[in-house]
């Protein structure tokens, strides 16, 4: 009786898997084993896979081919001070480097002497454009990327697959312009909630 039941289930399982599973699906390669030996129980393996299935299930490597080209427009600079914002971008660059992506960075920093400005991070070149000290918070430098328009030269030379620009700030206007004119996909990342920040540190934002 047990063997008969197993045979019925096996038949139903085989017809179901052949009807709904594609030829390359592990279900279509399922094997069904039964045994009439009194010392062994009947076994039905509906999810048996081929010997190569284990290699198909392995996690793919982090590197992509070809690598993605990214233009990172970032203000204030995360490379000359310590903060959560700075840590976030350094970690991002570390993982982009691990993935083999090609990143070009444009930032601004008028608070640091020119000869002390960092020129690279995780192997990626850092370009510096002219900026101005933000009058309401003089610890940071912001920029419109004017009059130099180094971002335009960067886009022309690198032809990136993606522009990533930080906000809120003023460099986002340059990023929007470059993305629109050169028809490059744009990503904006938002890092400071100004209403809350203004109430906390400036005291006059309603």
TrEMBL record:
One of its GO terms (molecular function) is glycosyltransferase activity. Keywords: Membrane, Transmembrane, Transmembrane helix. Residues 83-197 form the Glycosyltransferase subfamily 4-like N-terminal domain. The keyword Membrane applies. Pfam families: Glyco_transf_4. InterPro entries: Glyco_trans_4-like_N, Glycosyltransferase_grp1. The chain crosses the membrane at residues 162-179. PANTHER family: SULFOQUINOVOSYL TRANSFERASE SQD2. This is Glycosyltransferase subfamily 4-like N-terminal domain-containing protein. It comes from Skeletonema marinoi.
């Amino acid at each position: 009786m047990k063997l008969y039941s197993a045979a019925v289930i096996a038949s139903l399982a085989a017809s179901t898997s052949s009807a709904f599973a594609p030829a390359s699906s592990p279900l279509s390669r399922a094997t069904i084993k039964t045994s009439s030996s009194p010392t062994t129980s009947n076994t039905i393996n509906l999810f048996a896979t081929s010997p190569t299935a284990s290699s198909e299930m392995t996690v793919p490597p982090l590197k992509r081919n070809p690598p993605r080209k990214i233009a990172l427009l970032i203000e204030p600079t995360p490379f000359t001070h310590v903060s959560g914002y700075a840590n976030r971008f350094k970690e991002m660059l570390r993982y982009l480097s691990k993935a083999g992506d090609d990143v070009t960075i444009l930032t601004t920093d008028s608070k640091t002497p020119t000869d002390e400005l960092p020129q690279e991070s995780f192997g990626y070149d850092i370009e510096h454009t002219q900026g101005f000290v933000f009058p309401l918070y003089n610890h940071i430098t912001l920029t419109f990327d004017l009059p130099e328009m180094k971002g335009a030269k960067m886009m022309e030379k690198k032809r990136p697959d993606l522009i990533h620009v930080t906000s809120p700030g003023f460099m986002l206007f340059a990023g929007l312009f470059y993305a629109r004119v050169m028809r490059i996909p744009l990503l904006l990342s938002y890092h400071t909630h100004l209403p809350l920040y203004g109430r906390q540190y400036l005291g006059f934002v309603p």
